[in-house]
């Protein structure tokens, strides 16, 4: 599985903090004006949360303003295309759940950029498991009663972050395991889908724990299951997919950063250095841990290998279930 074959990150505790001389040195190597982090989703989702955590610290490290810009739409293709067509100078970054980039070539007959050619990996940032949760008013308490409800007269309305997203692919596989009638309801990103559950508009969601866990901890939703290798510390009574025998046990949010494909390697490496140091800061690492994420700062080469394998694996799921964008 992807998670087992992904190279482990170098220990973040040993990552050196940037020295006071780092910002002038980075400016001399080409970082001489405002940087943009393009998030191809609506505000409030996992990518947006991570981007807004990193931007102020990157600003300090680079000596240049780093701003976050949300460009939602077309399953992430609008934002990704903006980065693919940006100047190759390292000043426009794409931060997103990169599983989307692995899925979209199989999902769309044509996309306006080539992932391998037009986007260059900088580093993966975090892995966060998926959390399956239901609205509080749904008459279920665990996976068994959820399956019974799905097989009952009402069925389930299952919100996802968009047709063809990994949350959708995971939900399709889980729904097949549950049986019964499950209606998939796509939204423009994880944040609107979460609002649909908390407001009672939809019954269930499978979404990144980084964004979903607070709703469950605060009692706004009911946690049913979590992907990944272990239970969440904040939700010790919520079993893992593997414990329940659910498919897609290794699915989750793989957040990464990319730049325009022709960006010089030295600039890519400097961005990786900055991101590695920022992610190692106790406040950042602690906040990500609170949200259910695990650091995965592994550099461009490991990221590129992951992307190639994920493209093959997720593409097979799209083809098997004949998933098509609306």
From TrEMBL:
It comes from the Bacteria. InterPro entries: BUG, Bug_dom1. Keywords: Signal. Residues 1-22 form the signal peptide. CDD domains: PBP2_Bug_TTT (cd07012). PANTHER family: BLR1237 PROTEIN, TRICARBOXYLATE-BINDING PROTEIN. Belongs to the UPF0065 (bug) family. This is Twin-arginine translocation pathway signal protein.
